[in-house]
Every structure is written in structure tokens, then in C-alpha cells.
Design brief:
The complex is a heterodimer of chains A (about 110) and B (about 110). Chain A is built from no helices and 11 strands. Chain A is mainly β and about 110 residues long. In chain A, strands 2, 4, 5, 6, 9, 10 and 11 form a 7-stranded mixed β-sheet that branches. In chain B, a hairpin with a 2-residue loop joins strand 6 and strand 7. Classes of the chains: A mainly beta (about 110), B mainly beta (about 110).
């Protein structure tokens, strides 16, 4: 099993550009999450999904959108990138039994 | 929403000594309290967790204690080793299905050989 796979690992965007961070998991987990990690700030939840076709906002959803068309995939879209979106983004998944979140390797995004 | 505070932000200990990291939470509905370890440039990984019906849990050199009345929980690492050096995050959630964790701001632990 690959676990949770994120792409790209690094990306530089110009202000106003858009992009999609890809996330896929092969553990058949129902629950998936997107977090952002800023220095000294811990991880904050952007969006989450409880299953295909169902998504909901977390703590910091502004400027982002998600979709969940399959159990495996949970892409995060940034529209009109801003410098405040410079961060490391982690995708994660979990099942209903253990509560453990399995994280991807992270995507470092810089907006200039 | 939930607010999790974590102290200290940095901690240095000599190899073999113990390390203690403390967290407080605000939402009395929180019932799940995990600790994640993040090595430099790596993904966070779960090292131990505790649920609200338990006061203490141990796994070899690490232990977690929970005081629900005071709304605080702590991570204890005994006999520290250089490979324990990392950033440790506490978190809390009112886990029902999706496990939406609220994280503390992290503690950078350095174990000096």
C-alpha cells in the first residue's frame, strides 16, 4: 500500500494564479482531510470529507475548494492564489475505528 | 470551536532524561486526544492517543495522562534518545465519525547526546 499520496511536492505560484493539489489514498478510508501548516502555528483544517460526494468546511476554508468524486481522491483547488496561502499542505485520511490520521508527505506551496 | 494550547514551544533535555509536554483544551465535548511526532521535513505520525474514558496510557517509553476536569493532558517521554528529537503536536477532537483534529502549536524537542 502506498498510503496517502500527494502531488506536487513543491510549487511556486504567482499571485492570482490557480492550481490543484492532488491527493489519493489506497486504504479504502471514508474520511479525508486537508490541513495547512504554517511555521509555529500547528496544523489547521481547511476542508474534510466523510465520503464520496460529501465535503464540508474546516477552520480555514476561505480561498479553497474541494471535491470528492471517488473514495480514493480528494483534490484541493486554490483559486486566485494570494501570498497568505504560502504554506505546507497535508492531505490525510482515517477510518471510523481507530481515529488515526494518516498523512501524505506534504506539498510546499509558495505564492509570490 | 476547540482551542488547544501547548507548552513549552521548545524543550532541550540531556539524553536519558525525561521530557514532559503539556496541553490544555477548551471544549468539554472533546473526547479524543492524540499526539503526533513530526521529524524535520517529514509528515506527522501518530505516536500515542487517549480517549476521554481513560486517565493514563503507556506505550514503552511514552505515556499520556488526561485530566478531564481541568481540561489538560500531557505527554511524558522517559529515557530520551537522540532519535526522539522532533516536533511534537498535541490535538483534540470530539470524534464521532470524521476525526476533525484541532492541533496545538507544537513543541520542538531536542535531545542532547
Amino acid at each position: 500500500n502506498a498510503g496517502v499520496t500527494q502531488t506536487p511536492k513543491f510549487r511556486i505560484l504567482k499571485i492570482g494564479q490557480s492550481m490543484t493539489l492532488q491527493c489519493a489514498q489506497d486504504m479504502n478510508h471514508n474520511y479525508m482531510y486537508w490541513y495547512r501548516q504554517d511555521p509555529g502555528m500547528g496544523l489547521k483544517l481547511i476542508y474534510y470529507s466523510v465520503g464520496a460526494g460529501i465535503t464540508d468546511k474546516g477552520e480555514v476554508p476561505n480561498g479553497y475548494n474541494v471535491s470528492r468524486s471517488t473514495t480514493e481522491d480528494f483534490p484541493l483547488r486554490l483559486e486566485l492564489a494570494a501570498p497568505s496561502q504560502t504554506s505546507v499542505y497535508f492531505c490525510a485520511s482515517s477510518d471510523a475505528f481507530t481515529g488515526e490520521l494518516f498523512f501524505g508527505e506534504g506539498s510546499r506551496l509558495t505564492v509570490l | 470551536g476547540e482551542n488547544v494550547e501547548q507548552h513549552p514551544s521548545t524543550l532541550s533535555v540531556q539524553e536519558g532524561d525525561s521530557a514532559v509536554i503539556k496541553c490544555t483544551y477548551s471544549d468539554s465535548a472533546s473526547n479524543y486526544f492524540p499526539w503526533y511526532k513530526q521529524e524535520l521535513g517529514k509528515r506527522p505520525q501518530l505516536i500515542i492517543d487517549i480517549r476521554s474514558n481513560v486517565g493514563e496510557k503507556k506505550d514503552q517509553r511514552i505515556a499520556v495522562t488526561l485530566n478531564k476536569t481541568a481540561k489538560h493532558f500531557s505527554l511524558h517521554i522517559t529515557e530520551t534518545q537522540p532519535e526522539d528529537s522532533a516536533v511534537y503536536f498535541c490535538a483534540a477532537s470530539s470524534w464521532t465519525g470524521a476525526n476533525n483534529l484541532f492541533f496545538g502549536t507544537g513543541t520542538r524537542l531536542t535531545v542532547i547526546p
